[in-house]
Amino acid sequence: RRPMADGTIQEVVQNHSSRVGMTPEDLEQSVLEHLFYTCGKDLRSATPLDVYRAISHATRDRLVHRWLQSKRTYFHHEAKRVCYLSAEFLIGRALAQNLLNLGIYHLAETSLDHRGLTLKDILEEELDPGLGNGGLGRLAACFMESLATLQYPAYGYGIRYEFGIFDQEIANGWQVERGDDWLRRGNPWEVPRHELSVGVNFYGRVEARVHVDGTKSMHWVDTQTVIGVPYDTPILGYQNNTVNTLRLWSAKASKEFNFSVFNDGDYRRAVEEKALSESISKVLYPNDESAEGKELRLKQQYFFVACSIADIIRRHKKRFDTLDNLPDQIAIQLNDTHPAIAVAELMRVLIDEESIAWEKAWELTKAATGFTNHTLLPEALEKWPVPMFERLLPRILQIIYEINRRFLLEVHVKWPNDDERKRRLSIIEEGPVKHVRMAHLAVVGSHSVNGVAELHSELVCTQLMPDFHDMWPQRFNNKTNGVTPRRWLLQCNPDLSEALTERISDGWARDLSELTKILEYKDDTEFRAEVRAIKRKNKERLAKVIESRHGFKPNLDSIFDVQVKRLHEYKRQLLNCLHIIALYQDMKENPESDRAPRTFIFGGKAAPGYMMAKLHIKLINDVADIINHDPAIRDRIKVVFLSNYNVSLAEIIIPGADISEQISMAGKEASGTGNMKFAMNGALTVGTLDGANIEIREEVGAENFFLFGLKADEVRGLKGSGYNPNHYIERSPRLRRALDLIASGFFSPDDPSRFQPVVNELRNLDTYMLCADFDDYFRAQFEVDQCYRDPENWTSKVIENLGNIGKFSSDRTIEQYCKEIWNLTPCPIDLTESF
Ligand SMILES: [N-]=[N+]=N[C@]1([C@H](N)O)O[C@H](CO)[C@@H](O)[C@H](O)[C@H]1O
Fold first, then answer.
1. What GO cellular-component annotations does this UniProt entry give (predicted)?
2. How crowded is residue 649: how many other Cβ atoms within 10 Å of its Cβ?
C-alpha cells in the first residue's frame, strides 16, 4: 500500500523475490517450501505426486501477480474483452505449458535435477483434465492460449465437470469405458471463487404483472435454484505478463438439505434433491458430433450459460452504470450450439432484471454475440422438445417464442408469400412434438456466423443454412481453425523446436509464419540430417510407449502411419483398416513384394452408445491380432490401437508420426485440427479434399501432400444419382477380396459373423463411400511407399510442410476473430502500473 502525492493510498501488486525469484535456487527453495508447508512433506518422505503439487504451487506463485495485474489493467483501461462460451475446454496438462509460457521450463528442470528429480517424471503425475470430447474442446483451449499470448483480454466460460471424458480401456479388443475421476488427486491449477457464486433457476412458472403505469413485466416464480460456484484456472500468455481466466462453473445444491422435506421424514427425497442439483456438473456427455437429448444436458447448457451471463453483467455493472455500451465492452462467442441458449438468457436478464425495452435489448444481444458452427452432420444439430423446455425453462421458452415471432415477421416482410421458407427458417420446428432449433436461435441472435474452414464455411452457406444466408449474407464468414504452436511444437517436440530456433531464432513460437525462413535450409544437408534424426528420436519415444503397452517394439525404419481422432464412420478409420487388410493379402500372396514396412497406429474414443464405431475398434484390434502374429508378415506390417487417446498421448504420438491419415469423406470433416499438428511436426498427410486438408495442401504444395478421393461436390453428385457401392466392389478385386476376408470370419474365428454388420453396411449402403474411394486410396498409399523409400525426397517434402504450415497457428485464427468479429485490441500488461 503506497501513499500517493494526492494523499490517496495506492495498492501495488508486490512480489517478494524469495517467493517468486527466478533463479534455480529461488525456485528450488519455493518447491521445498511448498513441499513442507503445502504438502506437509520433506524431500525424504515426498512422493512424485507431492513434488508435482509443490512445483505446481511454486509455478503458480510466479503467475499470481500477473493474473491480478491483468484483471486490474482490463478493469482500469475499460478494455473490451471476449467471453468464449464453450461446453468443452480440452486444456490438457498445465504444468509443462505454464513453465514454458513463464519461460522457466529449463529453470525447473535444473532446480529439480539439483535434487535428483527429473522434471519429465514429475510431469507424468498430472492427470489430463479431459473436459472435452475432441476437436471442438481442444480448439477452445488453443484459442484461450493464443488470446493470452496475443495479449487480448479474454474469459473462457464452461463447466467444471467432476468426471471428464471417460478413460478408455481395451478389453479383448473391445472399448470399455471407465469414469474419469480427474480431480481425485486435487487440482493445484484452480482457485474457487465462492464469493462470485450465482443462483440459477429451473422449473417454476411465469406470471405477468401489470403495473399502475400499464406496463407489464414477466416474473419467473416457484423455481428451484441451483448454485453455480466458479473455479478459475489461469491461462498464461507465452512469455508476456498476460494471464487470462478460464472460469468453470460447478453446481452446488442451493441449500444443504431441504429440511422441510427432511422433517417430513422423506430423507431420501431430501438427499435426492441435493444430488440432483449437483449432478448438473457431474459428468461430460461423451458424444462428439451427435446431439444428446437428455434433460440433464439441457440443464448443463442453461446452467453454465446463466452463470456466465450473470457474471458478465455483474462485472460490467461494477464498471459502468449503463448497459448501453455492453457490445463495446463485451464480445460473446458461442462455441457451437451448446451455449446457444445464451441469446435468450441475455434477453431475459436485460428485460426482466435490467428493465430494458425488448428492441434495445435485442440490439445489444445481437451486437454482442457471435456463433461458430463446427459440423454439418444432421445428427449433431441440437434441437430440444418444446414440452421439456416449457417444464425446465418456461421464461426462456417464452422469450424464444417472442424472438421467433419477431424474426418471422422480418422474414414475412422479405418473402411475404413464402410460408414454406418461414417453416424452414422458424426457430420452432413444427411436428407432432415441436422442437427448439438451437442453431436457428444462435444465427438469429448473432451478428456473425462462421464456419471453421473455407470449404465448411461455404457448405454452411449453401447446404446447412441456405435460407439464413439468403436472409443475412453479411453475417456469414469463415475462420479457418488453428492450433497453438506452444503446445503443439515447442512443448511436444523440443528437439525440432531447437533445430528451428538455432537456424531462424525463436520468433516462430510467437509468429508461426516465420517458419518460411526454414525453407532456406531445404537443401542444407546438416539440417536435413537433423530433421531425420529428430523424427527417429521421436519415433523411438513413441515406440517405447507401444512396447510398454503392447509388448512389441515397432521397427523404427517402418513408416509410422497414424490415425488418431474420435471414432466416427465419416472419419473412415474403416477405410484405413481395409487398406491394411489389402496390403496384408498382397504380402501373403507375394511374400517377395518389396514394400516399405509399416506400423499402423490407431487411437481414439467412440461415443459409448455408438455401436458401429465400437465395432470398428474391435475390427482394428482383431485385424491387429491376426497380422501381428502372422509369421509370414514378420514386422513388415504391424497394427496397434493405443487406448485412451487424449491430449497428453497426442503430444507423444504426433511428433513420432511419418504419415498423418486425414481420410474423411469429402464434405464431412468441418476442419480437423490434428491434420495441422501432424504437418507442424514433420509428418506428411494422406488425405481427401475435405475441411482444412484443402488449405493445408494449398499452403504446403500439392506435390507435398498425398491426395486421393472424391471431392465434396462429386460426393454430392454421386449420392444424388444413386450411389451403388457394388459398382465399385465389382471393379476392385482388392476391395472385394478384403471384404470377403472380413466376412469369412478370418479375423474373428471366435465369432465368424461378428463383422457382418460392417460388411453389410459397405455392400448395401456405404454411407461414407469407402468403396468409391478405396482404389484411389490404395494408389495414394502406394505413392507413400515409393516416396518413403527415397529419404531425400521424403525429407524435402517434410521441410516444405514445416516451412509452409504457418497459417495454421491459432494466433492467425484469433487475430482474424479479433479483427473481423470481436473488434478487440490487445491490452498489454505492465507489472509496474499501479491503480
Ligand atoms: N463438434 N464438432 N466438430 C469438430 C470436432 N469433431 O470437434 O470441431 C472441430 C473444431 O472446429 C473440427 O476441427 C472438426 O472437423 C469438427 O468435426
1. cytoplasm
2. 17
C-alpha–C-alpha distance, residues 74 and 316, integer Å: 12
Per-domain residue ranges for the chain?
Answer: 78-93+128-480, 485-709+773-808
- The answer to whether the beta carbons of residues 679 and 801 sit under 8 Å apart is yes
- Residue 691 Cβ contacting ligand 1 at under 6 Å: yes
Return d(Cα 701, Cα 707) in angstroms, integer: 11
Helix axes 95-102, 48-61, angle to 10 degrees: 40
Average pLDDT of the segment spanning 663-685: 98
Look up the pTM and report it: 0.96
**Which residues on adjacent β-strands are paired with residue 369?**
332
Q: Say which CATH class 78-93+128-480 falls into.
A: alpha beta
Backbone angles phi, psi at 564, to 5 degrees: -125, 120
- Backbone CA torsion sign across 747, 748, 753, 759: negative
Q: Which residues contact 800 (CB under 8 A, 6 or more apart)?
A: 519, 522, 700, 701, 703, 704
> In ligand 1, which atom is closest to the CA atom of 380?
1
pLDDT band at residue 631 under the 50/70/90 scheme: very high
CA of residue 136 to ligand 1 center, whole Å: 5
Do the beta carbons of residue 586 and residue 544 sit within 8 Å? no
Q: Which residue, 375, 472, 440, is CA-closest to 672?
A: 375
Q: One fold for both 78-93+128-480 and 485-709+773-808?
A: yes
CATH of domain 485-709+773-808: 3.40.50.2000
Q: Which atom of ligand 1 is nearest to the CA of 568?
A: 6
Secondary structure in 3-state letters for 407-446? HHHHHHHHCCCCHHHHHHHCCEECCCCCEEEHHHHHHHCC
